[in-house]
Write a structure and sequence with these properties.
This protein has 285 residues and is an alpha/beta fold. It has 2 domains: 179 residues, Rossmann fold (3-Layer(aba) Sandwich), CATH 3.40.50; 87 residues, N-(1-d-carboxylethyl)-l-norvaline Dehydrogenase, domain 2. It is built from 12 helices and 8 strands. It is globular. It binds 3-hydroxybutanoyl-coenzyme A.
């Protein structure tokens, strides 16, 4: 099994800053790679805020928080940021061409022994691995939002991922106090193949006038003990992300059961993307 000490995380958005947070809090040196100084600063501010929340709840001490922040270094250049790390976790938007460009650069500059992982929610791990010269050292490491809270890491094996790499990623996930669950590379893996059709069906319920959004959510919260209803969760994930994932499922399986609800498409077209735009199925301050 490979020894992992230093990790690069590419992208400091919702998922990326959470991933940096958990690696740094569990003792790893982390390189946070962003495209602009202000994006890196915003990610660090979010991490600072979420660590303070943990200090207030007495889950960690002020010293733990300071030590965690000390372990994070920011970079604006991918090649520089990955040059001496053991593991790279990519967490940029779900656009294949963007990820391809990044992994080509990472493959060129990361040490030969480094494992390359993607936090993609649905893009094929095998297809991403194929843009690198090391498909056997490529794997999916899928975290869940909010990353510091959610226990699951879905570990996705591409066609050529080696057993040694899978083992390393399963072990490192445990060191992050997460529970790794293995899956093979199929559209949406397990998580989004099961979750997104539920969210889509909830949207069809609204579209067809079966119930108002708050009532759809109440049914699932009170009847099925979901912490958030499917429409609140869709807003939380981002309606654009939900649509991207449904399109990957629809195109990947060529099965009409994954057809995105027209109301979802309309809301994304209107720029109502959920929490990040302050409005989706619900309104936010
Ligand atoms: N960082 C650190 N701690 C956080 C946090 C963060 N970003 N967000 C919440 N917390 C902590 C809170 O401090 C609180 O701690 P406590 O238990 O010690 O009091 C705990 O988490 C619960 O938070 P809150 O009390 O603020 O709020 P809730 O009880 O309503 O829980 C929630 C919030 C954890 C988000 C809960 O509603 C939930 O589990 N929702 C479902 C989330 C989910 O399904 N996520 C998966 C999305 S799918 C995905 O990510 C995959 C992608 O591919 C689409």
């Amino acid at each position: 099994m490979s020894e992992i000490k230093k990790v690069a995380v590419i992208g400091g958005g919702t998922m990326g800053n959470g991933i940096v947070h958990v690696f740094a809090m569990n003792g790893y040196e982390v390189h946070l790679i962003e495209t602009k100084k202000e994006f890196a600063e915003r990610a660090l501010n979010t991490i600072d805020k979420n660590l303070s929340r943990m200090v207030n709840k007495e889950k960690i001490s002020e010293n733990d928080k300071a030590a965690t922040l000390d372990r994070i270094q920011t970079f604006l250049d991918v090649n520089e940021g990955v040059s001496d790390v053991d593991l790279v976790v990519e967490a940029v938007p779900e656009v294949f061409d963007l990820k391809k460009k990044i992994f080509e650069a990472v493959d060129e500059s990361a040490p030969d022994h480094a494992i390359l992982a993607s936090n993609t929610s649905s893009i094929s791990i095998t297809k991403l691995a194929a843009v690198t010269g090391r498909p056997e050292r490529f794997i999916g490491m899928h975290f869940f939002n909010p990353v510091p809270v959610m226990k699951l890491v879905e570990v996705i094996n591409g066609l050529e991922t080696s057993e040694e790499v899978t083992k390393t990623i399963m072990e490192i996930s445990k060191k992050l106090n997460k529970v790794p669950v293995p899956a093979n590379d199929f559209p949406g893996f397990v998580s989004n193949r099961v979750l997104m059709p539920m969210i889509n069906e909830a949207i069809f319920c609204v579209h067809e006038g079966v119930a108002e959004p708050e009532h759809v959510d109440e049914v699932m919260k009170l009847g099925m003990a979901h912490p958030m209803g499917p429409l609140r969760l869709a807003d939380f994930i981002g309606l654009d992300v939900c649509l991207d994932i449904l399109n990957v499922l629809y195109e990947g399986f060529k099965d009409p059961k994954y057809r995105p609800a027209p109301l979802l498409v309309k809301m994304v077209d209107a720029g109502k993307l959920g929490d990040k735009t302050d409005e989706g199925f619900f309104k936010y301050d």
